[in-house]
Write a structure and sequence with these properties.
Length: 211
Amino acid sequence: EAFRFQNPQVVVFDLYYIIKDSKYGNIEMAHTTIDNLKWSPIKIKAIIDTVPRKNWIDFFVPLTIYHSRWEELNERDFSKLTNSRRGASVSFRIDPQEPEFDLTDEFLDISKDSLDYLNRIIKLCNDNKADLIFTVVPYNAGKDNDNKTYNQQFALFNSAFRIAKKYGIPYINYIELIDEIGFDFETDLFDSTHINMLGAEKLSHHIGNYL
């Protein structure tokens, strides 16, 4: 969808979700993304490809899930919303974490669905002559991710990095650059898997200089 209206020279893609085994994610988050797209063949394909079949009707005919709000509608529902942060969310909450990193040199097979999407993203960028960069943003690896161990999570990233090397794709593993960028798990996260404003500033400086 982005390539329909823009011509990005670089696409920065974070690898976090290759840890997941399921093809489908949170259905509410899918609505947040897909419901806001204009109707096009891409939107139709997105629904068919990324939403369980049992939920298709709610995406093709959103009225089925929003019709009960008619008594709650106000002016905001009919006004055009803009986001100067380009979709980013800014949080000043601090949730101290105590990660026990166990980086590994091992490799673990990426799930079939995740590997399929990874290859599709690589092809999409190649077809549009956009450079692709893989990243892994700092997070507390022990509190999420389908009960995978530290070793399993980082072994999956290693497999993605191996693919990156195969295609000449640069990658930045920020978990290995914690000291270099001054990232602090005591102050720079607002939950176990999201960075707050302090962490975002540090990563933004680094990736901005890198670009």
